[in-house]
Amino acid sequence: MAAETEIIATLPPMHPGEMLREEFLKPLGLSPGRVARACGIPRTRIERIAAEKIGVTGDSALRLARFFGTSPEFWMNLQSRYEIETARLNAADEIAAIRQLEQAA
């Protein structure tokens, strides 16, 4: 069990583009162009999300949710989790050095 935990702890945070690419585009045989046309957005936006070059915005989340039958929260939660975990990894020492506010009794 410790080995599994160690492996999980070393995995990088999952970008929402990975989810889009691996769980939606590839299995459904969809091109970024087809998704973009259906969603009314530039093809490059879907390509850049799937390539993990940009994140999912509220607008993109609404459009992807409508097209794929998910919720916008699904996409935004992926984005939020990615950003928090990335920040946690990049600033771990600085975050650990912050002292919690002590409340008066």
TrEMBL record:
GO molecular function, one term: DNA binding
Pfam families: HTH_3 (PF01381)
Protein name: Addiction module antidote protein, HigA family
Classification lineage: Bacteria, Pseudomonadati, Pseudomonadota, Alphaproteobacteria, Hyphomicrobiales
UniProt keywords, alphabetically: DNA-binding
Domain HTH cro/C1-type: 19-75
